[in-house]
Design brief:
This protein is an alpha+beta fold. Helices cover 52% and strands 15% of the residues. The strands form 3 sheets. The chain has a 4-stranded mixed beta sheet, with helices on one face. A hairpin with a 2-residue loop joins strand 4 and strand 5. Helix 7 runs antiparallel to helix 11. The longest helix is centred in the middle third of the chain and has 35 residues. It binds flavin-adenine dinucleotide.
């Protein structure tokens, strides 16, 4: 039996683990070192039916529950968070089109993911990070088309994407658009703020839109509902970030345990020091607890039950645990833990970056605070 309990159908989880073992883990260090978009792995995932898990079967997807998608991302995260975030960008586009797009948009784009379409999700601008309630990038309607202008920053997977999901300002509020890369006026470039120290899947590029024209049905949802569309979608993708973070925490645990059980100091294995075992006891307890919270969030999202609360709690907890575990893993391995050629620095950098991308820890706490403030007061004070 595998050490880490399968929270989904065991055969499915074993399939995800096999994909990670055979294809993802062996290239994780190289992707991180070279900071490259793993186009080959996205294509392979598509061939294996793993790039469109949430997409219903009538659009050529796998039609899985969100819980199963979470399980896939946990396993991929254990191999390479960089590969995981590349696939998560695709998930974000699929989920937005599926839940809020028109039928014509669904038919046009959803089947392409099973054939390897890669996407990116563009909300952030130079002057609008956490606060995306109003934006400088604009869209105006001209006849049957929309014309988009502006620049988006920090766009994960933007170097490999063929489709962009973009939040912009319209005269009547925010709107979300699907924009294929090949449309005239769309370009990307890497700036001095594109290279991160963690979650490296190619530069997090600048996306430039210059008089970009898209058909009317490329608006996802209604004009003025853009914020609602992207925030609803973020509840799902931030739960996948939580899954990847706890996956990498598991990897740090496994690799450090393997090392200390073979490394000797003072004539005994490092693991046999009680002080070292306490680190592992804490790490294991925290990972096990975070995984319970993660899968309870997955169920809440499948059922549409208090989704902001549960997705935020899951990311908050899984990222915090991943940060503690990856730091402890370095500590128990001593100098080996700090080596550039050991995996621990990658785990640590990725865990830290997960605390910011896809919903910073502060914004997650604000979301939970807002949830609490909406609750009715149970018992008024006398
Ligand atoms: C690896 C990575 C990948 C990313 N990928 C994408 C992507 O694909 N698409 C995209 O659109 N964006 C992406 N981003 C951008 C990301 O969404 C933003 O970095 C994030 O929203 C925070 O914005 P900011 O960096 O401008 O921080 P700021 O908004 O400048 O905030 C600075 C600090 O203040 C805190 N803060 C801000 N507001 C509040 C508040 N109300 N209460 C308490 N604290 C607050 C923040 O949490 C943060 O700690 C990515 C970022 C990273 C690091």
């Amino acid at each position: 039996m595998a050490f880490w309990k399968a929270f989904e159908d065991e055969a499915a989880v074993e399939g995800f683990r096999e994909f990670t073992r055979a294809h993802v883990k062996p290239v994780a260090a190289e992707i991180d070192r070279e900071d490259r978009y793993p186009a080959d792995l996205v294509k392979l995932a598509a061939e294996r039916g793993l790039n469109a898990l949430i997409v219903p079967k009538n659009y050529c997807g796998a039609g899985c529950t969100f819980r199963r998608v979470v399980s896939f991302f946990e396993e991929v995260g254990a191999g390479s968070a960089s590969v995981g975030i590349s696939l998560n960008s695709n998930f974000q586009a699929q989920n937005a089109i599926l839940r809020s797009g028109s039928e014509s948009l669904r038919q046009r784009y959803l089947p392409q993911f099973a054939r390897g379409l890669a996407a990116a999700y563009a909300l952030t601008e130079r002057n609008h990070g956490s606060d995306i309630r109003s934006l400088d990038t604009t869209a105006v309607r001209q006849g049957d088309e929309w014309v988009l202008n502006g620049q988006k920053s920090f766009i994960t997977s933007g170097s490999g994407a063929g489709l962009f999901i973009i939040l912009v300002q319209t005269p009547d509020g925010l709107g979300v658009f699907a924009v294929p890369r090949e449309v005239e006026g769309v370009s990307t470039f890497a700036s001095d703020r594109s290279e991160t120290f963690g979650l490296r899947n190619g530069p997090h590029v600048e996306l430039v839109l210059k008089d970009v024209r898209v058909p009317f049905d490329h608006l996802i949802g209604d004009v003025g509902t853009g914020l609602k569309v992207v925030l609803r979608n973020l509840n799902f993708s931030r739960t996948l970030n939580a899954a990847m973070a706890i996956g990498l925490a598991r990897a740090a645990f496994d690799d450090s345990l393997n090392y200390v059980r073979q490394r000797k100091a003072f004539d005994q294995f490092v693991f046999d020091f009680q002080g070292i075992q306490w680190y592992f006891a804490e790490m294991l307890t925290e990972i096990d607890a975070a995984r319970l919270l993660l899968y309870s969030a997955a169920d809440a999202l499948d059922q549409g039950h208090e989704v902001e609360r549960h997705s935020s709690e899951a990311k908050l907890m899984c990222c915090a645990v991943a940060n503690r575990v990856t730091a402890h893993a370095i500590q128990v391995c001593g100098a080996y833990g700090t080596m550039v050629n050991s995996p621990f620095n990658r785990y640590w950098r990725d865990a830290k970056t997960f605390e910011i991308g896809g919903g910073s820890m502060e914004i997650l706490k604000n979301t939970i605070g807002r949830f609490l403030s909406r609750l009715e007061i149970a018992e008024p004070l006398a």
